[in-house]
Automatic annotation (TrEMBL), chains A, B:
InterPro entries given in the database record: Homeodomain-like_sf, HTH-type_TetR-like_transc_reg, HTH_TetR, KstR2_TetR_C, Tet_transcr_reg_TetR-rel_C_sf
Protein name: TetR/AcrR family transcriptional regulator
Domain of life: Bacteria
Chain residues forming the annotated DNA-binding region: 33-52
Organism: Paracoccus maritimus
UniProt keyword Transcription, yes or no: yes
All copies of domain HTH tetR-type, residue ranges: 10-70
UniProt keyword annotations, A-Z: DNA-binding, Transcription, Transcription regulation
Coiled coil segments of this chain: none
SUPFAM superfamilies: Homeodomain-like (SSF46689), Tetracyclin repressor-like, C-terminal domain (SSF48498)
Amino acid sequence: MARTQGSRAEITGPLIRSEARKLFAHKGFAAVSMRQIAAAVGVQAGALYAYTPDKQALLYDLLESHMQDLLDAWQDDPHADPLDRLERFVRFHIGFSLDHSDAVFLSYMELRNLTPQNYRKIAGLRRRYEDLLDGILRDGMSAGRMNIDDRKLATMALIAMLTGVTNWYREGGRLDRQRIGDVYWGLARGAVGAD
Amino acid sequence: MARTQGSRAEITGPLIRSEARKLFAHKGFAAVSMRQIAAAVGVQAGALYAYTPDKQALLYDLLESHMQDLLDAWQDDPHADPLDRLERFVRFHIGFSLDHSDAVFLSYMELRNLTPQNYRKIAGLRRRYEDLLDGILRDGMSAGRMNIDDRKLATMALIAMLTGVTNWYREGGRLDRQRIGDVYWGLARGAVGAD
DNA sequence: GTCTATAGGCCGATAGAC
DNA sequence: GTCTATCGGCCTATAGAC
């Protein structure tokens, strides 16, 4: 399979995605031009259209694969102690959010730039993720290990609280990730009435 | 004081601000053109520049006045019971956020579009607001009414949790504001170890 | 204060060569 | 797969008339 001079498809594809993710997260989808993405990748703007039909599809691709990665990364044991499962979820969600902070930020900020159809797909994946936590809380209540007034609201409140770490966390700051996980697990345990 | 034909300064100024706030919140700062704002107001694009030197200043003005309104709206009684003060804060923050959801969303999403200097000013106002909650938690711990591992993180966690209401609240939904306040107060009370 | 007109520039996307 | 060149369009901001 002869290759055209200058072709580096295996590298260019992933590079477009990672540079676009960074730029979209830091400047906003609408504020980033295809030319800027191309410059960051090291190609000319026209070359991007060999990988994506348009700018909107590139955004959707980033959001969709992020949500899929998130769902794939979570491993639960439905038979374990609900409080242990919740603790693992707390540490997992914080860790994953910090490891993918650009994608997390994008997933909250740029939903409005999706077509209605694409928006529904991403919202569906997010809903699936929320249901994972909801299931843990449900089992915790059934087992009498948690005391929760409204389970759906508790789910949304916990996810917002945990994701908020990305708003203030700075590498090399006062607290390391283990310690942050400890503190947030204490907050979450109290919030679900597990003391 | 004669007025030029067609001049409606008292109306146009506030209208520019409110239409810009709506458009920026729903589409993103970079995605909204001055022409779109002008069309929503009912003037031509050039007329906007009698009220703002440029688009960036318009954004800063919206964020600055929002933070100032927030700080002005909160009334605390440092001598009251810390748990009562925290409950008032929880209900106040949720209510204010829902009443000003466009401005709240803007304040989180469009900080990146401010100049460094303007960013520092907004960050300073936000810090002052965080310190109001921090003070309540400090007094609660001193009085032995709260059990908090890390006060700064608890502050950030609570604000993120409460602000998150704007992500899912819909007018006329399953729960009214009073009930939402009840549920979140329960979560917050547990999180600060007040049970 | 508001209008019309416009300068100067960047945009997304495509065509065609290699 | 990547490049160069380009179309048609929209952008911010300003100038000058009323």
